[in-house]
Specification:
The complex is a heterotrimer of chains A (284), B (357) and C (270). By secondary structure, chain A is mostly helical. Chain A has one domain: MetI-like (MetI-like fold, Orthogonal Bundle). Chain A has helices at residues 3-34, 51-58, 61-93, 96-109, 113-124, 129-138, 149-173, 177-185, 190-201, 203-218, 222-227, 235-243, 249-272, 276-280. The relative contact order of chain A is 0.14. The mean pLDDT of chain A is 82. Classes of the chains: A mainly alpha (284), B alpha+beta (357), C mainly alpha (270). Chains A and C meet through helix 1, helix 3, helix 4, helix 5 and helix 6 of A and helix 1, helix 3, helix 4, helix 5 and helix 6 of C.
Chain lengths: 284, 357, 270
């Protein structure tokens, strides 16, 4: 580490740090301050109290939080199982097809999440792409799976698939082929190789992928609104309502703070355990 | 102090946190010499060269170039240039653009730049048509030459080399070592080369410095280092060697573990009443035979015989440990493993290292 | 142990199914966009491109598109500049707080965007700034600039720091190193970062929702119509937006391929 590198490093970090300080850290502070203001005020010029946090406990907002966390957890587990074989294929088996898959998956990310979820509504609704055609050709009909908890989890899995897939593929790519072959050579079974070689060595990718999916799903809003038809209320939904219809900024802020703390602790813990330089391939 | 020194270092210290990488380096390098710094990895040689070109800051000490202090001068203002281990050829430029990069920085006219590039391509024996070749399409040897041409285009006072040949295969390395020595002679530049390979250093250098744990152990011409190392470290670093403990009592009588010493054997370098290490290179050891007489002799059993191309190496197990003997292939001695053998040498074949065991 | 043939086939089929899964909803949207009926129901009985015509004529639509486009272009330009320097601080230079900086810039990416949008709304309010498309640019930057930085950082990781050192050694100052060595070497990363920035901004909804004030972006309008008061223009505009994005991606891919093919052809001539 020499003087020049230190100086240039600090200088080049400045623009991004300044943007984030002004439009990320500062707003978070505002949220934190508002969260301890009395109900339904719109300025800081009030005596702080913790009424919003009381409301969170008393009026059942914790239920939304539990639903959000629970559904995010379910979605993360499903994603892990669903993405592993594909990530394995991308890292070790597919040649050119990896590129095709990558482009296809990344391109889907650029389509507004609303449009994609709306597409599922059109696909799954009564008289939608699937039920409509089925009824027209066979006369068989079925109830729409829309508007329930499972379909929200389905939506979360659908939307956050890329966030699990890519880190996982990166993690699996970090497992040297030699170690796997050596393990087989030493008599390990397929399962033993998976649990004792691949999973531990791909751990950084697993951690990043799970964390990213879980955290993003915790704060998700559109899935429950568009697909779930308000079958359950997500915490992000409560936050939005508190700000808009409720005109209760302190309550919205307190709910945000609770969500931020959960996400922040998890994110810091996870990110702190991962060597970013190693995952991204630093040379020295 | 050598008044003709081109580069002079005084008391160089470099610390990384609590780790001391360089611990008091003094050195003078003369104009036009090929100077090589050899050491095992972690000895501080790369750290030293990075300080010399200005890529890292030193903790203490001073560096003079032609009597001018340069240790606080940033790398881009020092009239020195380095050939990197990775060569650091710019992948987005072709061969010609790489070579003329330092000239472009000095705003040399395009016409003149092109002439200079052609001269350098000629000097390095690369075809002039390589001007437009992409770096990615050059072979390992060609890249070496391009990196050298680029460094020469800079026209530095001193050209530094950070193990540029270490990634190449053996045969190409051998060819390039000779080319480099030849280039040194033709350009008359001062070359400072670092390597972990003693063989490489021996082929090319005027003088060699052996580095160990952030200090110089010995600085001398190649022959002297090979034949008269100052320490066990240098002796062992310079290749296979046999070291025996030796003592001279107050009357000058010699004794050593497992050594049969002839009464008339004398070691002038060993003062009476002292202990030292007696160094004998494996090629100086002789097997006992009819009419053979040794000043120093050892007995043991043959442990193994190994063919090393043009030479044969024998390992003999003795009371003081394994002793190595080397013979040319045509002088091969037929011996069976486990067979008792006697070997010996004379005082003239030895070197005394004043370092007690 | 090489993967067996049957495993490979299963994996390929699985990969194709996942792609189908990702794009199935867009198929439904595309069909819906060419249905003539005002109230949609499958199977579609009469096809028509009437809604496309309406969309092109509508002044609301052109206003939405121009707002979205302005935001996206500004976000792209600013993000790429920030990301160039940010990536060097992230991946290249050894400086004291590098690991802290790395973790810090990841935080916004992990953040629920709805919450971020609301927090920004309160922040702008306490500063006395009235939200408009300009504040949405700031909101997008919080999320997109770090992502762009990561993309450029991946590129920055893969180049040898000795290249910059060599240039410095031969007399180049910091600015000429940035211009002659660093910038050309990071260029492919900057192009992808720009592409990402543009497309992510173009499609973003949760950040825009609270920060555009009286202005509205295309995804916002679509959302509003989806949750209340369906309009047959929703699938039409959705398809148009998606097709626009994909055209951009394919153009970029095709250009990248052309550049490489051209380079290889030149190399083959020698």
């Amino acid at each position: 580490m020499n003087r020049l590198d230190r100086k240039l490093g600090l200088l080049s970090a400045l623009p991004l740090t300044a943007v984030l300080a002004l439009s990320f850290v500062a707003p978070m502070l505002v949220v934190a301050i508002f969260s301890v203001m009395p109900q339904k005020v719109f300025s800081f010029a009030n005596m702080p109290d913790f009424s919003s946090y009381r409301v969170f406990l008393e009026q059942g907002y914790y239920k939304s939080l539990m639903w959000s966390v629970g559904m995010a957890f379910a979605a993360t587990l499903i994603l892990l199982v669903l993405c592993w074989p594909l990530a394995y294929g991308m890292a070790k088996v597919f040649g050119r097809f990896t590129l095709v898959l990558t482009i296809a998956v990344v391109a889907s990310l650029f389509v507004s999440e609303n449009i994609r979820l709306f597409g599922w509504v059109l696909t799954l609704m009564k008289g939608g792409l699937i039920e409509g055609h089925l009824r027209a050709f066979t006369g068989i009909s079925f109830d729409t799976p829309l508007y329930g908890v499972p379909i929200i989890v389905f939506g979360l899995v659908y939307v956050y698939l890329p966030f699990m897939l890519f880190p996982l593929a990166q993690g699996i790519a970090m497992v040297p082929d030699d170690t796997r072959q050596a393990a087989y050579d030493l008599g390990a079974s397929r399962w033993q190789v998976l649990w004792q070689i691949e999973v531990p060595l791909a751990a950084p990718g697993i951690v990043v992928g799970s964390l990213l999916s879980f955290v993003l799903a915790c704060g998700a809003l559109a899935e429950s609104k568009i697909l779930g038809g308000q079958a359950v209320i997500a915490i992000a939904d409560d936050i939005e309502t508190a700000f808009t219809f409720g005109q209760n900024w302190p309550l919205g802020s307190a709910l945000s703070v609770i969500l931020i703390v959960i996400i922040g602790v998890l994110a810091l813990y996870g990110v702190g355990r991962v060597d970013l330089d190693a995952i991204m391939g630093r040379r020295r | 102090m050598d008044s003709t020194a081109l580069l002079r270092l005084r008391g160089i210290v470099k610390k990384f946190g609590s780790f001391t990488a360089l611990n008091g380096i003094d050195l003078e390098i003369r104009e036009g010499e090929f100077f090589t710094i050899v050491g095992p990895s972690g000895s501080g040689k790369s750290t030293l060269i990075r300080l010399l070109v200005g890529m890292d800051d030193l903790t203490e000490g001073t560096i003079w170039l032609r009597g001018e202090r340069i240790d606080q001068t940033p790398a881009n203002l020092r009239p020195t240039c380095m050939v990197f281990q990775s060569l650091a050829l710019f992948p987005h430029m072709n061969v010609g653009q790489n070579i003329e990069f330092p000239l472009k920085l000095r705003k040399v006219a395009p016409q003149r730049r092109r002439e200079r590039v052609n001269e350098l391509l000629d000097l390095l024996r690369l075809p002039r048509s390589y001007y437009d070749k992409r770096i990615a399409q050059c072979s390992g040897g060609e890249r070496q030459r391009v990196a050298l041409a680029r460094a020469l285009a800079f026209d530095p006072e001193i050209l530094f080399f950070d193990e540029p040949l270490s990634a190449l295969d053996y045969r190409l390395r051998k060819t390039l070592e000779k080319e480099l020595k030849d280039l040194h002679a033709r350009t008359g530049k001062t070359f400072v080369y670092i390597t972990h390979s003693l063989e490489e250093a021996m082929v090319m250098s005027d003088r060699i410095a052996i580095m160990r744990e952030g200090r110089f152990e010995q600085i001398a011409v190649a022959d002297e280092i090979y034949n008269r190392p100052v320490s066990r470290f240098v002796a062992e670093f310079m290749g296979e060697v046999n070291l025996f403990e030796i003592r001279a009592d107050a009357g000058g009588t010699l004794s050593g573990k497992a050594l049969e010493i002839a009464p008339d054997a004398r070691l002038d370098a060993l003062a009476p009443g002292t202990e030292a290490l007696l160094m004998v290179r494996p090629e100086y050891l002789r097997f006992d035979g009819p009419g053979e007489r040794f000043e120093f002799a050892l007995s043991g059993t043959l442990h193994g015989e190994y063919a090393l191309g043009s030479r044969i190496q024998y390992e003999i197990e003795t009371e003081t440990g394994m002793v190595t003997v080397e013979k040319l292939r045509e002088d091969r001695v037929r011996l069976k493993e486990g067979q008792p053998v006697r070997v010996g040498f004379d005082a003239a074949d030895t070197h005394v290292i004043a370092e007690p065991a | 142990m090489p993967t067996s043939r049957s495993t490979r086939i299963v994996l390929y089929v699985y990969g194709i199914l996942v792609i189908a899964f990702l794009y199935l909803p867009l198929v439904s949207v595309s069909f819906a966009s060419v249905s003539k009926a005002r109230y949609l129901s499958f199977p579609i009985r009469r096809y028509s491109t009437k809604w496309y015509g309406e969309a092109l004529k509508s002044s609301t639509v052109s206003e939405l598109v121009s707002t979205s486009l302005t935001i996206a272009v500004l976000v792209t330009v600013i993000s790429v500049v920030i990301a160039f320097f940010g990536a060097l601080a992230f991946a290249r230079y050894d400086w004291r707080h590098r690991t802290l900086f790395q973790k810090f810039i990841l935080l916004p990416i992990f953040f629920p965007q709805t919450v971020l949008g609301l927090a920004l709304l309160m922040w702008f309010n306490s500063l006395g700034i009235i939200p408009s498309w300009k504040t949405a640019v700031v909101a997008h930057l919080v999320w997109i600039a770090p992502i762009a930085t990561l993309i450029v950082a991946i590129r920055a990781y893969s180049f040898d720091p000795a290249l910059e050192e060599a240039a410095r050694d031969m007399g180049a100052g910091t600015l000429s190193i940035l211009r002659e060595i660093t910038l050309p070497l990071l260029a492919p990363g900057l192009v992808s970062a720009g592409l990402f920035a543009f497309l992510l901004s173009w499609g973003n909804f949760p950040l825009s929702l609270f920060t555009t004030g009286a202005d509205s972006t295309l995804p916002e309008w679509l959302y509003a119509k989806m949750v209340s008061g369906y309009s047959p223009l929703v699938p039409t505009l959705g398809v148009m937006s998606v097709v626009g994005s994909f055209l951009l991606i394919f153009t970029a891919l095709a250009l990248a391929w052309l550049v490489r093919a051209n380079r290889e052809a030149r190399a083959a001539q020698q």
